[in-house]
Amino acid sequence: MDVLNSGHPRDAKTLRRGCSGTPGQEDALSKLVEEVEGLRFGSAGHLLPFQKGLVVTVKVERGLLADVQQRLGPDC
Predict the structure, then answer these.
(1) Confidence (pTM)
(2) What residue spans define the domains of the chain?
(3) d(CA 54, CA 60)
(4) Is 29 exposed, middle or buried (CB count within 10 Å of its CB: 0-12, 13-18, 19+)?
(5) What are phi and psi for residue 23, nearest 5 degrees?
(6) Contact, 28 vs 5, CB < 8 A?
(7) pLDDT single digits (tens) 8-40
(8) Dihedral sign (CA 24, 28, 29, 33)
């Protein structure tokens, strides 16, 4: 969740420095999605709304980063 909670480019924790698509950040986001998609509560065989929301949030974060990098360059 640190990557999604990023707020300062010089944070002591590298995952909280803002989403820039580093391998560590991408790995953390992939693990989050994998964990959320694997969770099941009670007898529900499907994802609950909050789980779908987290998966969509990660997709949006990645898409936004790709769009910004396309428009402003990879070092933005």
Answers:
(1) 0.79
(2) 21-72
(3) 10
(4) buried
(5) -55, -40
(6) no
(7) 777 888 877 778 888 988 999 999 999 999 999
(8) positive
